[in-house]
Queue: 2 jobs
Job 1
Amino acid sequence: MPTMSSLTIGALAKRTGVKIPTIRYYESIGLLPEAPRTGSNRRTYDDKAVNRLRFIRHARELGFEVEAIRQLLAMADDPGRPCRDADLLARTHLAEIESRIARLEALRDEVRRMVDGCAQDQVRSCHVIEVLADHAHCLHDRH
Amino acid sequence: MPTMSSLTIGALAKRTGVKIPTIRYYESIGLLPEAPRTGSNRRTYDDKAVNRLRFIRHARELGFEVEAIRQLLAMADDPGRPCRDADLLARTHLAEIESRIARLEALRDEVRRMVDGCAQDQVRSCHVIEVLADHAHCLHDRH
DNA sequence: TCTCGATCCTCCAGTCTCTGGAGAATTTAG
DNA sequence: CTAAATTCTCCAGAGACTGGAGGATCGAGA
C-alpha cells in the first residue's frame, strides 16, 4: 500500500527524475498546478503529481512540445470534453504519434541491421540517413 | 532523373522544410559541413545535403538530441567503424529507439481508445497520463 | 535545546536550439 | 537596366530548461 504521503519537491524530483528547478519551471508555465504550500512556504505534492510529472517528462523525451502536452493533459483532466471539440485534436495527435512510430521503426530496423552486420563481422554500408530522410515516412504535407 | 543540381540555401530550405536560419545554425554547430560557396559567397548544396538535413530534421522531431544525431551521422559517414568501437553506441541507440517505440505505442493505444470512445458517443475516462507515467515502459535506470 | 548540514525558497543569469530582424550585397525576372 | 527577391553577417529574442547567490527552514544528533 503506497500513497497517502505528502512529498517535498526534492522527493518528487527523485521519484520522477525531473530536476527541482525544472519542476518549479513547469509550475511557472502552468504545466503543473500550483503546489499547495506548508506553513513555511514549501511546496507539497501527492501521487497524482508524480504521475502527471512523469507523463510530462516522458512526453518531452518523446519530442512533444509543451503546447501539445498541455492539450493532452487538458483532455486527460476533462474526459467528457474530448467527445466534443477535442476530438479533432485527439485525432491529430494520434496521426502524429503514428507517424513517429513509423519513422522510429524504420530507424530501428536500420540501426538493427548495422548491429547485426557487426555481429557477423561484415562490413555493411549504413543507410540510417536515407531511412529517416525518406519522405514516405512523414505525414506532414507542409514540406 | 533528378540530381546534378546545385541548390541555393532557399531551395534546400523548401525541399527539406528546414528554415534558412536553422540551416545556417546547423552548419555553425557542425551538424552540417561548411557548404561550398559561390564566387559571391553564397552557400551551395547538393542532394547529399538534402538527405542529411532531412535526417537531422526527422531525428530532431523524434526527440533525439543534437549530440545523438551527431553520433548517428558519424556512424553513417564511416560505415567501417561501427564494427569496432561504435558497436556499443549503436546498441545503446537501438535500445533507446525501442524504448521510444514502446512508449509511443502505449500512448497511441490510449489516445486511440479516446477517439474510439468518441466515435461511439461514449464517455470514457482518459488514462494517457497513467500510460506514459508507467515506469515499465522506460528503459532508464536512473530514475 | 542548540546547532549545523541538508533542503527549500525567490530571483536572476546563463545555456542550448532555434528564429527572426537590420543593413548591405548579389541575383534574377520583367 | 531597374526593382523585387535572395543571400550574406551579425545580433537580439524566444522556448525550455539549468544552476548559482543569498536567505529561511528543517531535522538529526550532542
Job 2
Amino acid sequence: MNARRKFRREGEERRRQDLIEATLDSVAEYGLQGATLRTIALRAGVTAGLIRHYFPGKEELLQEAYTALVGRMTEQAKAALAMDGASPRQRLAAFVTANLNAPIVDARVFSLWATFLGRASADPTLARAHREGYLGFRNEVEAVVAEVLAAEQRKPDASQLRHHAIAINAIIDGLWIEGCLAGEMFSPGELAAIGINAVEAELGLAPLDQFQEK
Amino acid sequence: MNARRKFRREGEERRRQDLIEATLDSVAEYGLQGATLRTIALRAGVTAGLIRHYFPGKEELLQEAYTALVGRMTEQAKAALAMDGASPRQRLAAFVTANLNAPIVDARVFSLWATFLGRASADPTLARAHREGYLGFRNEVEAVVAEVLAAEQRKPDASQLRHHAIAINAIIDGLWIEGCLAGEMFSPGELAAIGINAVEAELGLAPLDQFQEK
DNA sequence: GGGCTACTTATACACTTGCACAACAAGGCC
DNA sequence: GGCCTTGTTGTGCAAGTGTATAAGTAGCCC
C-alpha cells in the first residue's frame, strides 16, 4: 500500500507548455484566487512540487502564461491579414471578421484577458506584455488602413492615419467584448457585419451596395 | 498595557459605505487575491471581525461592492445626457466626451472593472450586475441615436437603430479602454475627438466644418 | 449617573496557500 | 544489466485565510 505514484518524464518544453496551459485553464475557471499551485498541478497531471522545478515561483508562471496568451491572441488576429491576392479593402474586412468570430470571440479568452489586465495597473510586467501586444495590433491596423486609403487615391497625413487606427482598434475591441460577454444576444455574423460597417464608415468608404438606410 | 483599542460607533449606513469603499480600494490596488478581510478592515479603520457584523461573508461584500461600482459608473455616464436645451447631436457629443475623459477614464476604475468582469463568467451574480448595467447604457445610447436621426429627418428601422447603438457602444468602450490603459499616449481631448468623429461617421452625419481629410 | 444594547474588538481555529527539501524512480548511457 | 542523472513525488512548515465567538465598551435613554 501507500504506493508511490507512477509518472513519466516529459521533455522540458512539453512540460512547461502543459503547465502554462493548465495555468490558463485554472485562471479562466477559478480566477487568480482559485488558481493555486495544487489546482494547476492537478490539471496538468503532476504534483505541485514539480512546478518549482520549471518556474522560480508562482508569479513567474503567471507572467509566462499571460505572455503566451497575448502572443496567441495577436498572432491569430494578424494571421487574418495574410491573404495575398485580395484587395486592401477585402483584407481589412477579413481582419474585422476574423476578430469578431470564434475562436477570438470566446468567453474563456475574455475571462483571462480581463483577469490579467485587472492586475496590469499594479504589475509592470503584465502591463508591458499588454502594451506590446496592443501596439503591435494597432500598427497592423494602421498599415492596412494606409493601404485601403491609398487604393482610394487618398493621402491622409500621419495624424489622421493614427486616429483612424485608434478608432478602428476601439471598434474591434468594443465589439469583441460585447461578443464575448453576451454572444447569445447576437446572430452569427451580426457582430462582424456591424464591425465592417462601422470601420468603413470611419474611413469614409462608400457603401458597396445593399444595407443602406433609406 | 495591552490596552484595548479605542473606537467610535458609526451609523449603519456610514459603516457599510466605508467598508464597500475600502473593498473597492483594496481590490483596485491588490486585486481579488490581495483584498483580504484584514486588508479591507485596515483600510476602513476597523478590525476584521466587524465586517461579519455588516455582511454575511466576504462573497456578499464583494458583490455589493461591484454593484455599487457599476451603479456609479453608469450613473455618471448617463448624467452627461441630461443637458436639456441642447440639440440631440450636441447631447450625443457631450455624452461621448464625458465618457472619454476623467473621471470615467481612470486607471483605478478600469482595474476594478476588469478584475470583477474576469470573474463574471464563473459568477452569475456578477454577470447579472454587469449585464444590467450594460443594457441600461446601451438603451440610453439607442435613445439618443433615435433623437439625432429624427432631427436629421431619417427614419431608421429598429434593426438599424440597434446596430448603431451596438457600434457606438463599442466605440466608446474601446476608446475608454485605450484611455484607461494608456492615457499618457493621448493628448487631452484627443480621445473624445476621435470618439465623436467615429460616432458621427457611424451615423452618417455630415462633418460640421473643419477636420476633414483632403 | 447607572444600566442596556449592540457595535466593535480581540482571540481562537480549522483550513489553505506557496515554498522547501528529502526520498525516489524513469530512462538514457556504458 | 547496473549505474547515474535529474525529473518527479510526497511530506512538512510557517504564514495567511475566512469564519466563529467571547469579551469589552461607547453612546443613548431614563
